[in-house]
Amino acid sequence: QLPTGLYKKVLVILHDSILPYMNEPTLMIDFLTVAYGIGGAISLLALNGLFILIHQHNLEYPDFYKKLYSLLDPSIYHVKYRARFFHLLDLFLSSSHLPAYLVAAFIKRLSRLALTAPPEALLMVIPFLCNLFRRHPACRVLVHRPNGPEGMSEDPYIMEEKEPSESKALESSLWEIQSLQNHYHPDVAKAAAVLNQSLSEIEDDISGLLELSGYELFDKEVKKKAVHVPLEFEQVRGLFGKKNDIFAEHFAL
């Protein structure tokens, strides 16, 4: 049992400052699997070390994707380790051999959580979802389902289900992204509208969006040149602005 602060300090540097210098990195399997099971930010940070053991040292982790799916909660769009988590999530979901129901569950859960996400996170996750559709064409039924959300009396997706295969995500539709097309931030609405068109074959590069912050969005908006929009087509005359108004003869604005 380690203090939470110490867990975080160790896990932040484990993948690049500890594991490469160990003769037997597999000795860290128990430590990382326990950390991965704790939940919250500690689980997110343990992903880096687990990825190295899985990718380079043939670690087999049963129910890995089930646990990864359970990590998707509203906090993932707000934690400071968001960029690292989505970078690894992108790697874990890059294999074309993953079943469609699994990828659909991740797409649906990320979309549902996006309804309460800040704009800077949405500008990252929407291209992320588009990339998943490009890799896994079988999941495009979520976007192109006949009649879409209008043809459903209720969404069959079960948000509370911990098992991705039982969540019924593949039977649902992405009404959440359709909702984001009316987002108050114009860039988010524009990004969400991309799914209304046929996606290109080339994946979007999300590396520059992972670190996007609210301050950068604010600075971008402030530096935009103001566009002067005429508010009246016809100049106001008189008190009430009507043509041949008797008040216009006696009052002036």
TrEMBL record:
Domain of life: Eukaryota
InterPro entries: CCAAT-binding_factor, Noc4
Stretches assigned to the CCAAT-binding factor domain: 43-192
Key words, A-Z: Membrane, Transmembrane, Transmembrane helix
Transmembrane segments: 31-54, 85-107
Pfam family for this entry, one: CBF
Single Gene Ontology BP annotation: ribosome biogenesis
Entry GO terms, CC: Noc4p-Nop14p complex; small-subunit processome
Similarity comment text for this entry: Belongs to the CBF/MAK21 family.
Protein name: NOC4L protein
Organism: Heliornis fulica
